[in-house]
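Project standup — Tuesday

K.O.: blocked on the structure for the chain from last sprint. Re-posting the sequence here as requested.
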Amino acid sequence: SSSSSSSSGDAMLSGELKAAASKLQKEQAQRAEKERQRLEKERILAERQRQRQQQREDEARAKRLEAAAAAAAEEERHLRDLEENRGVSLRVQLAAAPASADAASSRGIKRAADKLQLPPSVGESLMSQNAPKNGAMLFEVAASNGGRTHAGVLEFSAPEGVVLLPEKVATCLWGLPSTGSGSDGGSSSYTGSAAHQAGAGSPAAAAGPSSSGSRCSGQVWVRYVRLPKGTYVRFQPELRAFHDAVGSDPEVLRSSLEQCLLGYCTLSQGDWVQVPYAGETYSLRVLEVQPGGAVSVIDTDIAADVGPSIETEGYLRAQEEAAARDAERQRQAREAAERETAQALEAEQAAEAAQARRQADDAAHRLQLQAQKAALVAPELPAGSDVPHVTLLFRLPDGSRLSRRFELQQQLQQLYDYVDSKGAGGLLPGAYQL
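H.V.: unblocked you, prediction finished:
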């Protein structure tokens, strides 16, 4: 009894030890799994941190490269400007603002329609480089919308960081102001100047009509340039009323253009100029200037030419497009008729071919029937036979005639089989009576 109790206690103790060992192993496995998950999480976080750091370094490197490329391009431009401008280089970004309309007229200054008012620091920079040695100081003005033109300088009295733009320069950069227009001439509402300068589809092409003050906003780049003296310019009026009022008299046209050009220092391809005449002001676009795309018009004889107006070109283009549409409709109608004719001919040919096949099949079927019927007919008695017989004459529907001797005891069906074996004048078996 004592031995049995001892064995039972040992077994219980062994079971408890096994359970404890199993629990310990499970807890150890859970702790190991938690530690593995913690380490994996830390690894993922560290990898993400490394990727973010790498991305920041790549972005910083790209910015440094971009800045270096921009600096190199700026240095190249600076050296090119020094070479082209005989040792003078200036390029500044300034806030655009509208100039007062009477800033120059009240002082009797000529060629003021495209003269800028620049800050004193710009004048000091140019004077330090002896810019007056190159003659009149001229500038390229570029807006963020892609508009680009050229201008002279009125004075260096604008607030620092600001350039005051006259109406003509603003118009060349941002398009004609919306002032209303009629077919009888006068001011225009066309606002596509920058589109013609920067190319169709450029941001400038989307510039809408506005007043000078609202258009003169944002930053513009002003760059000192030397321009060649112009030798030729070709204008395009906005409205055909210009040709009716001014262009009809060559002498009036010449004097009007001369008077207009006396108000400007420069002309650039894509510019707009205003030509006053008989109380009206007409807008003309600069289609072409020579030499190059921008010229000085100071102290130079320049040949001028005036092409068809934008309004006329639009009308002619609409006429051409309408004619092209009519021609296309006629072509399509002609092709449709040709297709219908071809389809009808094809259908007719197909019907004829089907009819020919049916006729061939019918002829073959008739020949087959004739052969079958001929096999059913007993041989004809020879002439002068003593066998009682009768000679029958058959007149067929096609006008032909058949004659044959038949024995008196032959069945009537033999007559039908004989006629059928000869074609029955085109009739099928069962379709006629004897």
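K.O.: great, moving the ticket to review. Confidence is low (pLDDT under 50) at residues 179-211. DSSP finds nine helices and 14 strands in the chain.
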